[in-house]
Amino acid sequence: MINAGSFRKGSKILYKGDPYDIIDFQHSLRARGRGKIWTKMKNLKTGNVLEETFGSDETFKEPDLETRDMQYLYDNEDNYAFMDSETFEQYFYPKSTIGESKWFLKEGEIYSVQLFEGSPLTIELPASFILKVVETEPGIKGDTVSNVTKKAVLESGLVIKVPLFIKIDDNLKVDTRNLEYISRA
Known about the structure:
Layout: E1 2-3, E2 12-15, E3 18-28, E4 36-43, E5 49-55, E6 59-60, E7 65-75, E8 79-84, E9 90-94, H1 95-98, E10 110-116, E11 119-124, E12 128-136, E13 149-154, E14 159-163, E15 171-175, E16 180-184
Antiparallel strand pairs: 1-6, 2-3, 3-4, 4-5, 7-8, 7-10, 8-9, 10-11, 12-13, 12-15, 13-14, 15-16
């Protein structure tokens, strides 16, 4: 059981039957009576963000989350298919809930997938991922005072801004949290 007074960013709770991730919280203490905890939390099933206020003495169950290594197989119109590396069982992840992680899925790669009650919730990505440039304009040298960037299309379809010296077939390290260029790989 998790007490609302001990919430931290990243805490996971079971609220109204769904698993939630605490994004933000704030304690509010009063001279008399119990304190209040304002929380901003994300539903791990649907991705919806909810703001709630709880008493500091309220308790919540921890969701039964399980992390497994799974191999990404393919995608179809509605789902992404993953296969458990140990049991060879296939799981289907709805495209509507995957979010920005879709840019970093490569066939045959192994990912850590978090499961809740046997269905996949989130894909845990590394902080950076290496992708190849498939399309970009040639860089034009000139008088520049600040960092000048151009657009580049990566092998997954992601479009990011890169420095002028980047060319087609370069491998780039991309930040998976903010979808920005880090360096050449």
